[in-house]
């Protein structure tokens, strides 16, 4: 994978997000309470709501429009809702957030 340095981990608040421009639209970077970082298209699969503005809890984000819960590690909506926000490989190394933008990771 072609990893790109995006920002310092500290640039994303714990239980917060940051939006970057991706090749096919905005990408939301999410930071959990455990300092894990996940990246999803900033678009809820339900009505296109901005996931970056949702509440993060555990490894999920709640869409601010209709409270759909999306798994950060897969992009899948939590049942009974059905849908998927495309995810992008992300990791933290030496305090830096790295993202692989070229390879879109499909939903499981």
UniProtKB/TrEMBL annotation:
Keywords, ordered alphabetically: 2Fe-2S, Aromatic hydrocarbons catabolism, Electron transport, Iron, Iron-sulfur, Metal-binding, Nitrate assimilation, Oxidoreductase, Transport
BP terms from Gene Ontology: nitrate assimilation
Record flagged with keyword Oxidoreductase: yes
GO MF annotation list: 2 iron, 2 sulfur cluster binding; metal ion binding; nitrite reductase [NAD(P)H] activity
UniProt keyword annotation of Disulfide bond present: no
Domain Rieske: 4-99
InterPro entries on file: Rieske-like_NirD, Rieske_2Fe-2S, Rieske_2Fe-2S_sf
Family: Belongs to the bacterial ring-hydroxylating dioxygenase ferredoxin component family.
Record protein name field: Rieske domain-containing protein
Organism: Pseudomonas knackmussii (strain DSM 6978 / CCUG 54928 / LMG 23759 / B13)
């Amino acid at each position: 994978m072609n990893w790109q340095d995006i920002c310092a981990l500290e640039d994303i608040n714990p239980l917060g997000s940051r939006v970057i421009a991706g090749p096919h639209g905005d990408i939301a970077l999410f930071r959990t309470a455990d300092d894990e970082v996940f990246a999803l298209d900033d678009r809820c699969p339900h009505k296109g709501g901005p996931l970056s503005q949702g509440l993060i809890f555990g490894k999920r984000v709640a869409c601010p429009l209709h409270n759909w819960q999306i798994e950060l590690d897969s992009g899948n909506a939590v049942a009974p809702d059905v849908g998927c926000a495309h995810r992008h490989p992300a990791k933290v190394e030496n305090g830096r957030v790295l993202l692989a933008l070229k390879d879109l990771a499909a939903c499981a």
